[in-house]
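FIELD: query
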Amino acid sequence: MQQQEQAALRRGEIPSAFRSRLESASRFLLMMDFDGTLAPFEADPADATPYPQVEAVLDEILESGSTRVALVTGRPADRLVPLVRLCRPVEIWGIHGAERLHEDGTRTLVEPGGAETIALSKCAKWVRDAGLLDARSTPRLFLEQKTGTIALHWRGAGDGEGERVRSAVAPAWSELVERTRLGVMDFSEGIEVRSMDVTKGTAVRTMLDEEEAKIGLAAAYLGDDLTDEDAFAAIRGRGLGVLVRPELRPTAAEAWLRPPPDLLNFLRLWAASASQARAR
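FIELD: result
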């Protein structure tokens, strides 16, 4: 995966070539992660809400009628629906691209194979048997089980405590998923077992392929986490990958925004371009 040097990306700077594409586009594809991108992380994921004004600007974008908006998340799609209050339903890709919830409510899901299902159960059992979910443990951990993946969260713990848990869990999980199509992946404040074949990049490539026949397309993917790197790689050369996070890190994205101010500026630029396209 190609990654930019940190010094090559300047906060809030959008490549001039992409600005020109936005100004001349007649059709737009805006793909975004949720947690850490549109909304700050919360200790309880059910408490996450978008940054102030984000939903209002997204409504502007939707009302222009020229932008296909999609959310791409590690959460199951139905857990995201009540947290995003927009003027109309949008497409949601859940479980890192394994699930697709269309605007009309229809849903498709890539189910794990038998070997993967067994390995996931063993990984969850290992966490419980190790006593990591004990209410008295430090840091307090949360095990999230989804179709085809499990994630162990340590939200709110310091870097040292999180690294201590990761160092214990990663080798055990890696051994349990050997000879399967699963991999052990890090993400912000957690570690996860998920498919190596279906990623957020899968979702991005599918949507780009569906839109590619349309002339004058401008496409972007916004994300913050290591799980978004597959999406940044997938959109490279076909649109703009945008890293949205307070601190810059090595990334395959081609622009960096700090939330919420830079994020809002970018969405407002997008809304203005979509409105101009409608007027044309």
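FIELD: remark
The chain has a mean pLDDT of 93.
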